[in-house]
Design brief:
The structure holds two protein chains of two kinds. By secondary structure, chain A is mainly α. In chain A, about 75% of the residues lie in helices and about 0% in strands. Chain A is globular, with a radius of gyration of 20 Å. Chain A has a two-stranded antiparallel ribbon with strand order 1-2. In chain A, strand 1 and strand 2 form a beta hairpin. Chain B is mostly helical. Helices cover about 95% and strands about 0% of the residues of chain B. Classes of the chains: A mainly alpha, B mainly alpha. At the A-B interface, helix 2, helix 3 and helix 7 of A face helix 1 of B.
């Protein structure tokens, strides 16, 4: 885990250097476009976390095993955190670019909010059921349903001709200069490394917690 | 500082504060786990001594 931590810090430092010093200022949006280098990677990382949560849920339903439930829950927890960050950084960018904190006329924004609220409800559902095999199965099925919303959210702007939210990645490739794209990739690598570090630390903490509870019960009996 | 620069600083600041809060939460959790481990070790020692 130490090497992941060192790697995440190094990638974060490299990304900041790339974004601040290497990537040129956007001709249209000016300096506020620099929010893109963290906002989009954070959103993509949230999708990746929800995807990982669904994959672990599928393995739980397929093979069974308490560890997959914990892994799925932790991944969805991370996804929700990154989802909240996507909404906050996106809102700041919206204010800088469009002059409003939020607009209901953008399908991309509304669908991402729906996705985020769907996963917020995951925790309400999970904690309304007694711990055990039933809760594990219900949570896993819910996590699998949620993953179906990801492609809908991702392709929303392409499907609905959303003129408000910009489409940077088209069939012709990324609509930016090479240095901008390099800064974006550096930012994404840094955010992914941070998310993976957080996932491993949180999972380790939860496992230690469970082991200590078991040990306490064994010693008390 | 221009308005654009303020918004960029705010967006990056949010991410920084989030990482900071996460570190504080994990540190608190680690401290709790350390305390509980010490309590269990004490309990195990008492049991071993009879």
């Amino acid at each position: 885990m130490r090497s992941i931590g060192v790697g995440a810090v190094a990638l974060m430092a490299a990304a900041i250097v790339m974004i601040v010093l290497v990537a040129p200022e956007d001709a249209d949006q000016g300096i506020s476009q620099k929010i893109f280098y963290f906002h989009v990677p954070i959103a993509l990382t949230a999708y990746a976390c929800f995807g990982l949560g669904a994959w672990k849920a599928l393995r739980l339903l397929w093979r069974g095993g308490e560890r997959y439930d914990l892994e799925s829950y932790t991944a969805i927890h991370q996804g929700t955190i990154f989802g909240a960050l996507t909404l906050v950084t996106g809102s700041i960018w919206a204010k800088a670019s469009w002059g409003v904190w939020w607009t209901w006329s953008s399908n991309q924004l509304v669908l991402f909010l729906v996705l985020f609220l769907f996963y917020c409800a995951y925790f309400m559902l999970r904690y309304s059921v007694e711990p055990g095999a039933r809760r594990e199965r219900i949570s896993a099925v819910y996590a699998l349903f949620g993953v179906a919303l990801i492609p809908v959210s991702f392709f929303a702007i392409r499907l609905a001709n959303d003129f408000i939210h910009p489409t940077v990645f088209t069939r012709e490739g990324p609509q930016m200069t090479d240095t901008m794209f390099a800064a974006f990739l550096a930012g994404w690598a840094a955010i992914l490394a941070l998310a993976y570090l957080m996932y491993r630390v949180e999972l380790s903490g939860k496992r230690t917690d469970a082991n200590l509870r078991e040990l306490r019960e064994a010693l008390s009996s | 500082m221009s308005a654009g620069e303020k918004y960029v600083a705010a967006a990056y600041g949010v991410v920084f504060v989030f990482v900071l809060v996460w570190v504080v939460i994990i540190a608190a959790k680690l401290a709790r786990l350390e305390r509980e481990t010490a309590e269990l070790a004490e309990l195990a020692r008492e049991r071993a001594d009879g």
